[in-house]
């Protein structure tokens, strides 16, 4: 996997891809770019998903993450009612050390060479300013700045959508769509987590946060002194009286160690791929913990960038993101009716929409 010709896309097919249509490795030695682009499905339309910039241990880890994230984007876009399939790109390396204009331009050329099968956007480690650079080489770029015809920071509607999912969880469990008087723990207060905390505070929730970056916590507590801080995620999930746990950092937040220790009765957060492995959704249900499927509630960002392709209108995109409330409630209803966890119910609905689109295109 390391022997990649400079400046050439190499398409990889694996027996364990999980139905992915295409996986490509990209390398540009001049700029230092090494990236993976994974297209899970284009049945509903061009694959849409962000670009993650992260210092993976090796290329195998990067490919695995791209595959998981791309599949999640197919399901997310299907549940959001978008005419887009799922894709994801990851750039290998520490963005603080290797991110340059030349690297981003090289990446843009690789995305452009796919001819519109993949539309990129921001993710962990990439920002609006980066997408402006990528767009100079690739017209299939979203998440650009308003000055460059874009929608700006997609974390705004991502947080708004998670908040709607949380309100739906409150409605389903407690009969009232508000977090007023509830204690909510937010793990990760970066771009999305910060906005989410502000929604929660405005709604009257008591908020406890943690983040591996002291600066992110300090920035939040300077603005909102009534927010309390837990030492780390392990301490946060064990906070007494916690009603809702919101994982808003990297994936795999719900695992065999975390689930038994959770004090919250609802899990609803912005992180992708929160379930560390199959079966965790059942463990949550067995403990009586209501899980709002991550790719459903965090779809506000992709709704925002998808709207950009049609001439961005924030109010129009916000109306679409507000529907996450109804979608989440529908999933809880379907799960109860079928006697399955909400994650399984969401998967069934998404898979049905994708399968219908495949059948229609034959």
Automatic annotation (TrEMBL):
It comes from the Bacteria. It catalyses: L-valine + NAD(+) + H2O = 3-methyl-2-oxobutanoate + NH4(+) + NADH + H(+). One of its GO terms (molecular function) is nucleotide binding. NAD(+) binds at residues 188-193. Pathway: Amino-acid degradation; L-valine degradation. The active site is at residue 88. The keyword Oxidoreductase applies. Keywords: Branched-chain amino acid catabolism, Cytoplasm, NAD, Nucleotide-binding, Oxidoreductase. The keyword Cytoplasm applies. GO terms for cellular component: cytoplasm. It holds the Pfam family ELFV_dehydrog. Its main location: cytoplasm. It is an enzyme of class 1 (oxidoreductase). Its EC number is 1.4.1.23. Residues 152-362 form the Glutamate/phenylalanine/leucine/valine/L-tryptophan dehydrogenase C-terminal domain. One of its GO terms (biological process) is L-valine catabolic process. InterPro entries: Aminoacid_DH-like_N_sf (IPR046346), Glu/Leu/Phe/Val/Trp_DH (IPR006095), Glu/Leu/Phe/Val/Trp_DH_C (IPR006096), Glu/Leu/Phe/Val/Trp_DH_dimer (IPR006097), Glu/Leu/Phe/Val_DH_AS (IPR033524), Glu/Phe/Leu/Val/Trp_DH_bac/arc (IPR016211), NAD(P)-bd_dom_sf (IPR036291). It is found in: Cytoplasm. Belongs to the Glu/Leu/Phe/Val dehydrogenases family. Homodimer. This is Valine dehydrogenase.
